[in-house]
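Data availability (excerpt). The following record was deposited with the supplementary files.
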Amino acid sequence: MWVKAYFRIDFAGLTRLRRLDRTVTVFNARAVTIYLWHEIALILAVPLIDRFWDVPAFEKYLPPESQWFMFGVGWVLIAVFVLLCGWVEDVAAKRRPRLLP
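Predicted structure:
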């Protein structure tokens, strides 16, 4: 909000970009699920990445020790949690459950 006021930027124009608008819509609709599961996803990413060391292709071509790799694995796990548990937000809001809003 500070950037918007300081630079006098109107972010409403970003809704013209369909993919970005859809991504923001999903993030807004599943914000509680993302908030609740993100730490668990990052904790689960560590032993999962440890298993990648046993695969020679990962060890040779991907940086398992990189924080960015853990960040990517964490987001994949968050996406799985959103798909598995996100419908609970719809039930709590007394809406029809949907896989993705």
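Summary of structural features: The chain has a mean pLDDT of 86.
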